[in-house]
Write a structure and sequence with these properties.
Blueprint (H helix, E strand, L loop, with lengths): L2 E2 L15 E3 L5 E3 L2 E2 L8 E2 L2 E2 L6 E2 L17 H19 L14 E5 L8 E2 L2 E2 L6 E4 L4 E5 L3 H9 L1 H19 L9 H20 L6 E2 L4 H12 L7 H7 L6 H12 L3 H5 L3 H6 L25 H15 L6 E3 L14 E4 L4 E4 L1 H7 L3 E2 L6 E2 L1 H19 L7 H17 L7 E2 L4 H11 L15 H12 L3 H7 L3
Parallel strand pairs: 8-12, 14-16
Antiparallel strand pairs: 1-19, 2-3, 3-4, 5-6, 7-13, 9-10, 11-12, 15-16, 17-18
Helix pairs in contact: 1-3, 2-3, 3-4, 3-5, 4-7, 5-7, 5-14, 10-12, 11-12, 12-13, 12-14, 13-15, 13-16, 14-15
Length: 482
């Protein structure tokens, strides 16, 4: 949803940037702790990156608890197994990190949202409520076994369901640790719950769960896709104030999850509005208005003019001595693979673009169309990453390695962070970063080397991009040194 700068007068924004900073001594830190392994392309959140089985262990013990109104089917068995696992984890990892005393959730309720006879829980009518939720007042965790949980399993796998339950259980953790109250902003509650889910799933991915396994490649990618799916819809600032229940953009939710997956429960407990505001920068969170005063909903058309504006903007951001040229058709390259929809050729210092394919990648789509999330920045972030390769070549850096792939993602984030600043010839709009991280997760091209080889873990690709959003090129070069 890029906009030319002249169309952004008066835009209102709150924004989230990455929490990554570089200490003066050169030690990489995340929220104040050393993260030497976080930016390793062979790892994901400090764990070895790779594909493998994800889901319930064949020898997992049967659920020890029962849910009211359950049909005792496979959906409820999966949900109850996840609750057993979560209760084991938090009972073993409570002391020293959280205040209060851990106790199991008092009530568990399974229901079918399509059934007019669905029960009431905590005063809520559940007929038509396809969701999962935790009720603070009654210490009850409930889920729709008819549509919501099966849908999560269909699109995001069984560990996607476990991720949903981990998030809802995160709200129980908040209540039992006395971290929130009714007046606490919803965004704080949601960020903490996403973070707590990350802490638990790191334990699973490390091989410590007796009930589940989670690969740090495709398995974790599906969990992250679920976090993107439950993002807030795009709204104007006025609409957001009226609803008053912001849960977070995809970038918000992924960022909080990554804090937990890479860290500890005490860091999740420390999340409050001051912390969230401190992590905010210039990235737009709200829809702007068009010349007629209506919300600007459409993405920009990807054409020669927009790409020319992008090249001008990237020249301003990176200031290369020898800027790459743009060629609006793919061409053979003697020293690199030709990758559609965009490639960088070092021999000619040219970005070659398959314009029809790039336009297809940038056509707005969503989950209803069988695509996680797609828009103009899904495509333009790929072109930006190819420009970042030209900048690395001018610096004399190698262009063929997993480290190159992550450094490229970081530099792409730098450029897009700068595009959110006032005065940029081409300006970022609300939803653009969400489109970028969706692309990083699904195709990874914005985190690939000159031959289109991506870093293994979507988690780490997104982390590198986030590092750039709040940084500068030199920080990318230091973090991702060859």
């Amino acid at each position: 949803m890029y906009r030319r700068a002249r169309r952004l007068a008066g835009w209102l924004s709150l924004a989230l940037t990455a929490t990554l900073i570089l200490a003066g001594c050169g030690t990489t830190v995340l929220d104040g702790r050393a993260v030497s392994m976080l930016f390793d392309p062979s790892r994901a959140g400090g764990l070895p990156a790779g594909d493998g089985p994800s889901g319930p262990r064949p020898d997992a013990p049967p659920p020890s608890r029962a849910a009211a109104h359950s049909d005792n089917g496979p959906v409820d068995r999966l949900a109850l197994t996840a609750i057993d696992d979560l209760e084991q984890f938090w009972s073993e990892h409570w002391n020293g990190a959280l205040t209060g005393t851990f106790t199991p959730v008092a009530g568990l309720v399974s229901y079918d949202a399509a059934d007019p006879a669905a029960p009431r829980v905590c005063g809520n009518e559940l007929y038509g409520l396809s969701n999962a939720f935790y009720c603070y007042d009654g210490d009850v965790l409930a889920w729709d076994r008819g549509q919501f949980i099966p849908g999560a399993a269909q699109y995001f796998g069984e560990m996607g369901v476990v991720g949903v339950m981990a998030h809802e259980f995160g709200h129980a953790v908040q209540a039992k640790a006395h971290l929130v109250e009714k007046a606490t902003p919803v965004l704080v509650k949601e960020q903490q719950a996403d973070c707590f889910a990350g802490v638990y799933l790191h334990w699973v991915a490390a091989g410590n769960s007796p009930r589940f396994v989670l690969s740090t490649g495709d398995g974790l990618n599906h969990v992250l896709a679920g976090a993107i799916y439950i993002r807030d819809p795009l709204m104007t600032q006025e609409e957001a104030i009226l609803t008053g229940d912001a849960h977070g953009s995809a970038l918000d939710r992924i960022s909080a999850f990554q804090i937990g997956f890479s860290g500890n429960a005490d860091q999740c407990a420390a999340i409050d509005m001051d912390d969230i505001v401190e992590r905010q920068g210039d990235l737009p969170q709200f829809l702007s208005y068009d010349a007629h005063g209506a919300p600007s909903l459409g993405d920009s058309a990807i054409d020669a003019d927009l790409l020319a504006d992008l090249m001008t903007t990237l020249g301003d951001v990176y200031s290369p001595q020898n800027p790459p040229a743009l060629n609006l058709e793919l061409a053979n390259c003697p020293d690199a693979e030709t990758i559609s929809p965009a490639s960088y050729c070092p021999a000619t210092n040219t970005i070659n673009v398959n314009l029809p394919a790039l336009q297809e990648l940038g056509t707005p789509k969503s989950e209803e169309q069988g695509v996680l999330l797609q828009g103009d920045n899904t495509a333009l972030s790929v072109v930006t990453s190819r420009y970042a390769l030209a900048v690395q070549r001018e610096r004399g850096l190698p262009l063929e390695s997993p480290v190159t792939a992550l450094r490229t993602a970081c530099l792409t984030g730098v450029a897009q962070g700068r595009m959110a600043e006032p005065g940029s010839p081409l300006a970022l709009s609300a939803g653009d970063t969400d489109e970028a991280i969706s692309g990083l997760l699904t195709n990874g091209l914005a985190a690939s080397d000159v031959n289109g080889v991506t870093a293994t873990a979507g988690f780490t690709r997104i982390l590198a991009y986030r590092a750039g959003l709040s940084g500068d090129p030199e920080q990318c070069y230091q973090r991702f040194a060859s």
